[in-house]
Amino acid sequence: MFDSLSAQPADKILALMAAYRADPRDSKVDLGVGVYKDASGNTPVMRAVKEAERRILADQSSKAYTGLAGDPAFSDAMIDLVLADSVQRNRVAAIATPGGTGAIRQALELIRMAAPKATIWLSNPTWPNHPSIIKYLGMKMGEYRYFDENTRKVDFDGMMEDLKAVPQGDVVLLHGCCHNPTGANLTTAQMEQVIALLKERDVTPFVDIAYQGFGDGLEEDSVATRAIAGAFDNALIAASCSKNFGIYRERTGILMAITKDTDQAGITQQNLNFLNRQNYSFPPDHGARVVTTILTDPDLRQDWEAELEETRNGMLALRQQLADELKRLTNSEDFNFIAEHRGMFSRLGISTEAVESIRENDGIYMVGDSRINIAGLNKNTVPLLAKAIIRATS
Ligand code: PMP
Q1: Given this structure, which CATH class describes domain 10-45+301-393?
Q2: Does the active-site annotation cover 121?
Q3: Is residue 181 within 6 Å of ligand 1 at its C-beta?
Q4: Which residues form the Aminotransferase class I/classII large domain (predicted)?
Q5: pTM here?
Q6: The domain at 65-296 falls in which architecture?
Q7: Nearest CA to ligand 1 atom 12
Q8: What is the 3-state secondary structure (H, E, C) of 127-170?
Q9: Mutate which of 14, 17, 129 to test ligand 1's pocket (most atoms within 8 Å of Cβ)?
């Protein structure tokens, strides 16, 4: 039976990781995969996570199933973290999911059930898993302009022009903060214009928020998502705990559906539970329990927020150092956008040939579209990258 299977295209980022591992050079630098790394190149278990796990290990008396939606305390804690009081709690239906990817998958399946003909509109570019899952589910997708390759900022006029043409009843996927892969984000005022437009056109927003706390702060990074939650009768929000809690492999995420009233919330909740049941039954619990423990214990929460802030400030300092170094080398402000971008990534906007030349000559690995993971750098490798960029592009 498996004779009929054909090969799948290799995941570009995973292929890049393999090439990096095979590179014998000691000086090699990995700016590929989207995992936070500290100055020594490690992805540490956060202090609060270690302590929460210690407590869970000591206190947990049963590993019986939770509920189909996961532990309600996890939903409450995450709804509070992401949405705060932007929407009444009884209008939110939510399920725990395996990571943010699981939340995206379940959101798309819910859309398919509720509006099978809807097209999902994605920013160009976006995280490659978005189109890949949509295609796999047999759903329709379209693109709206997002990134201006010249300024390396958001092409806001182009974006608005494209969104104006989105038909009523379709879905627009927006990144809540820290756009992946570009690092370029809308201002709050621009997001307000997008919200007004989508409302006017009766288009449903679908927010993917995978980096809350990695941009400007936990509160600042949730402004757009909260504004959307507060403005629409219906919206979908997929949140990941992988990055901000550093629990990538625990697969912890949540899908929140904003509904128009309590009755609709109840029915939507049933549909979300049903989707969990069909796809994997009960969602994973360990990571969710770690997150709940941290968010509901004032001391753990404070320590988590402090460590997250250190992480964020470290990335902001590396951004500034790289922008300064490139300013010094080019005598221009052409690379200032790196300091303005937010989150773990920046798209440099250099050619594929330059990306390859930097990989071969300098052993610095970035994704083919010139996305760099800022957290893959440290104080010593920033000048090497700056020099390599200049060499490969001039
Ligand atoms: N959305 C975006 C934009 C991402 O970058 C990621 C992680 N690469 C995710 C969602 C999902 O992450 P995870 O499934 O690991 O929680």
Answers
A1: alpha beta
A2: no
A3: no
A4: 28-389
A5: 0.97
A6: 3-Layer(aba) Sandwich (3.40)
A7: 100
A8: CCHHHHHHHHCCCEEEEEECECCCCCCECHHHHHHHHHCCCCCC
A9: 129
